[in-house]
Amino acid sequence: MSDPRLHTRFCDLVGVRHPVVQTGMGWVAGPRLTAATSAAGGLGVLAAATLGFDEMVAAVDEVRSATDAPFGVNLRTDAGDVDRRVDHLITAEVPVASFAQAPGRDTVDRLVEAGVVVIPTVGAVRHAEKVAEWGVDAVIAQGAEGGGHTGVVPTSLLIPQVVDAVDVPVVAAGGFTDGRGLAAALAWGADGIAMGTRFLLTAESGVPDAVKALYLATPVTGTTVTRAIDGAPQRVITNAMVERLERARLLAFPRALGNALRFRRLTGTSLGELVAEGLRMKRNQGLTWSQVALAANAPMLTRATMVDGHLEVGILPTGQGVGAIGDLPTCAEVVDRTIAGATAALDRLVGG
Question: If you ran DSSP here, which 8-state letter would residue 317 be given?
Answer without folding.
Answer: B
